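Fold Annotation — chain and its backbone
Encoding — discrete vocabulary of local shapes
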Amino acid sequence: MDKINQYFLDELVKKAVKKENIWGFVIRVENTDLSLSLMSSGGNIQSEDYYFIASVTKLYVTTIILQLRAAGRLQLDDPIKQYLSSDIMSGLHIRKGIDYSSDITIRHLMSNTTGIRSYFTSDIIDQLASGHDQIWPLEKTLDAIKQTKPRFKPGQKGRALYSDTNYQLLGKIIENITDKPIGEMFKHNIFDPLQLEKTYVYENMQDTRPVPLYFQNLKVHIPKYMTSVTSEGGIVSTARDTMIFLKAFFNGQLFSKNDLSELTARWNLLFGPGLFFYGTGISKQPITAFDLKDGLLGHWGQSGAFAFYHPKSDLYFTGTVNQFSGHSTAARMMIKLIKQQLT
């Protein structure tokens, strides 16, 4: 019998929204056979509200890449130079005077093992939080990162660096292969087949459906930025719709279930943002520092969004704290729910 009930979940949410700078919270919890299916919300977020899933979008990118591989249109170890223009490739990865740009593969991008730095730095977060909203296309990203030194060679053993730049490049690869905008690919290959009626790519700067983002105590309004980062974080959804996607991702509805073993075959430890592991197009959040094999599989979003599956307890979690600095609150809640289920 499931040990999590609505009262237990509601009480956790009530406590969470009393924490400093947590203005709202929504969480959905399910297991595989739906014998457990609960949702709770608090603060300024209602259960069915739209929110930015931010980097949870990367799971959707992973899905499209695997679908393209299944169709024979790419391989994960293909050099990215096969799919990107010479303008993009020129000077993309130069370290200690050696140009490694041609060595970068699709797998390196997906696993954050290119060594290329992320353009999305604390300075950018501060700019956005202070009201300096701006469009951030791939060209602007490339101008920024080509002036920085990569941290390591592509695929260097034991090295990884979380970089939104990698996923902007993956988005461009998808568009070049399919000759379609990545938002259209999301809709055709994921949103429509799964009947995600409340999931869409944020394209209209006048769209006020997503709940406002927060950075600590500041309300952040960044429509220009959000319309320009589709492949790394531009999807809007709900906890209910994201749950449908998450379960489809892990249960073979979108790509072969056998592909999951490849995504999770090798984990690299990352120290920022936070401490977690990264596989190939998927992340793992450890439950404790003493058992690194046990963990939540899925992805965080910089917005405080989350979409994770915990195999040991057979629990799926989706939702958001809608706070740039609120990940620890969401992590603690998921861990409490897991412990309650396994007790």
The two ends are 11 Å apart (CA to CA). The first strand starts at residue 24 and ends at 30. The mean pLDDT is 95.
